Amino acid sequence: MRIELKGIGVAYKDWKLENFSSVFKSGSFVSVLGPSGSGKTTLLRLLCGLEKPSSGKILFGEKDVTKTAPEERGLGVVFQGNSLFSHLDVFGNVAFGLKMKKEKDLEKKVSEALRLVHFEGFGRRNVNFLSGGEQKRVAIARAIAFNPSALLLDEPFNGLDGKLKEGMKLFLKELRAKTGLTVILVTHDLDEAFFLSDRLIVMNNGSKEQEGTPFDVLLKPANSFVKDFFSDYFVVEAKQQKSRKGNVIIGNFSVPAQSGSGKPVIIFKKTNYRFIDGKT
Ligand code: ADP
Ligand code: MG
User: With CB atoms 3.0 to 4.6 Å apart as the test, which of 20, 109, 223, 258 could cross-link to 8 if both were Cys?
Assistant: First the structure.
């Protein structure tokens, strides 16, 4: 589903978001980036209706949902922290939204969602004894079980350790490819954003500093804030793209392409990159 924010404003005591506009195309994966306190979570709260804008409009497709209640918006949301119901098992958690909607095919819908997060057959598990990654997967299953019009994720991989986090990133990429869902991911992890997103929105203190493909934002930072924010990274344009999903050619090397940048490029983190001149 296409989502549009039109001139949105919110004001707290000593912080405000003014005249924020953005379009999230149907089926796109957009990451909202920015330091702590920049307004990332506020944007998600506005989208799902937990926060009322003081000005502006929110459109889902053609429909104006600015005044629509959260439960009527049909979004799948995973907020920060562990938001599972501890008195319910895995099945109960995933079935929660479906039961509210009086869904008939409960068993089938829940097992489909659990299959998508690779947790099929574990419906009777106690959620309190799951690992961090498993809990996140159940939370995502709950968010996608009722076939939401878009998936909103607020720092879903926070607190997960290296290997698990990598696995979750792959999982999310695959989930998106399988379902074609519009995904809006809030994160302060640039690696995550580059790996997953078609577009980035860079926030700073309630303002949008820049919006664009990872390639554009890295190569043409709009201002010194954005330039500094991405200063740990650089981008190499590939010579040739073998196939849409396949590898790209950089020099003599064929490396896995990460789609979504708009152009075949590889984004490197400076600290993870080593130049060897052939003599060493
Ligand atoms: P981020 O998710 O980017 O870290 P938030 O969107 O949570 O940032 O918050 C942006 C700013 O708004 C912060 O300074 C925060 O303290 C403030 N804020 C968020 N929600 C409220 C609220 N309900 N009342 C007052 N201030 C708030
Ligand atoms: Mg936040």
Answer: 20
For the beta carbon of residue 7, count every other beta carbon within 10 angstroms: 12
Tokens of 196: 């997953």
Nearest alpha carbon to residue 116 among 146, 95, 79, 144: 144
**Residue 167: per-residue pLDDT:** 83
Q: Tokens standing for 185?
A: 């991911």
The answer to whether the CB of 41 is under 6 A from ligand 1 is yes
pLDDT single digits (tens) 205-256: 999 999 999 888 998 999 999 999 999 998 887 776 666 556 777 777 777 7
179 pLDDT band, cuts 50/70/90, is: confident
Question: Ligand 1, closest atom to CA 45?
Answer: 6
Per DSSP, the three-state class of 71 is helix
Cβ 100 vs Cβ 174: under 8 Å: no
Q: Can you tell me whether residue 102 is helix, strand or coil?
A: coil
- pLDDT tens for 244-256 read 556 777 777 777 7
**pTM value?**
0.90
Token couple for 126: 């106690």
Nearest CA to ligand 1 atom 19: 42
Other Cβ atoms within 10 Å of 59 Cβ, number = 16
Could you tell me the distance, in angstroms and rounded to a whole number, from the CA of residue 42 to the centre of ligand 1?
A: 6
